[in-house]
Amino acid sequence: MHVRRVSALCATVGVVASLSACAQRASMLPAADRGVPPAVRREAAPPPAPNLIKDGSFEKPLVAPGSYQLFLTCQTFSAWTVSSDPGNVGVVSGTFTQNGFTFPAACGQQWLDLTGVTQTATGVAQTIDTVPNAQYSLSFEVGNVYDPNGIFGTFSIVNVFIGTKKIIVAKNTRGRTSRQMVWKRFTTSFTASGATTTIDFLNGDPSTDTLDGLDCIEVRQL
Q: What distances in angstroms separate CA 206 from CA 61, 118, 202, one per listed residue?
């Protein structure tokens, strides 16, 4: 009811004053008692599903600052097994430097060089528990430097397999104006076919390229 209409119906000023006092008292009431809807309660977003990959940033074993440690095909370190072609991979300190380039980690303090010192199609694999027919997201970072006249090449390629099926070819060509390794994030998904799933990350660079960085691996159920 508008005050203008009420004024026309009221015979005395006292009635209007009484209505004004009522309005003032009503404004002092809680919103719910005034007929005003309370503020919408914002529900907290559910936490993300846990990362099923163990040591996805290659923090173990801890290597000396500025150095690296090599592991041969079929050797294990942390939660990983060196896989595929005979060769090696290297766990590298984020403070490592060579030929005027710096190589910081994308996550944590260390990262993995899939080329090792053999530059073969070697990689690392990990088997995780999965639910048959469930969907999973996979994300990871690939590191690259642009070194057209040097040993590090101009691109980095990581081939990712679920079992024997290649699910993504992750190619990073960044770093043209930098003397520092540049990371690029990749995300894909897969459907688990069994109670366990093996994920394999293989070096896809040519034998003349001595850098193929891998870091920040995550697998989460969707």
A: 27, 11, 12
Are 142 and 158 contacting, i.e. CB atoms less than 8 angstroms apart?
A: yes
Q: Which residue has the higher pLDDT, 86 or 10?
A: 86
CA dihedral 65→66→71→76, nearest 10 degrees, is: 30
Contact 160, 167 (CB under 8 A): yes
Question: Quick one: which of 71, 65, 76, 118 has its CA closest to 91?
Answer: 71
Q: Render pLDDT for 86-111 as a digit per residue (tens, 0 to 9).
A: 999 999 999 999 999 999 999 999 99
- What is the rounded average pLDDT for all residues in the chain? 87
SS3 9: helix
In degrees, rounded to 5, the angle at the alpha carbon of residue 14 between the alpha carbons of residues 8 and 18 is 95
Residue 163 Rama label (left phi>0; alpha psi -120 to 50; beta): left
Query: 200-220: per-residue pLDDT in tens?
Result: 999 999 999 999 999 999 999
Residue 31 reports pLDDT greater than 50? no
pTM listed for this prediction: 0.81
Question: Selecting from 2.60.120.10, 3.30.1330.80, 1.10.645.10, 2.60.120.260, what CATH number does the domain 68-221 have?
Answer: 2.60.120.260
Domain with CATH 2.60.120.260 in the chain: 68-221
Alpha-carbon span 170 to 139, nearest angstrom: 11
Distances (CA, A) of 199 to 55, 156, 167, 216: 14, 19, 10, 14
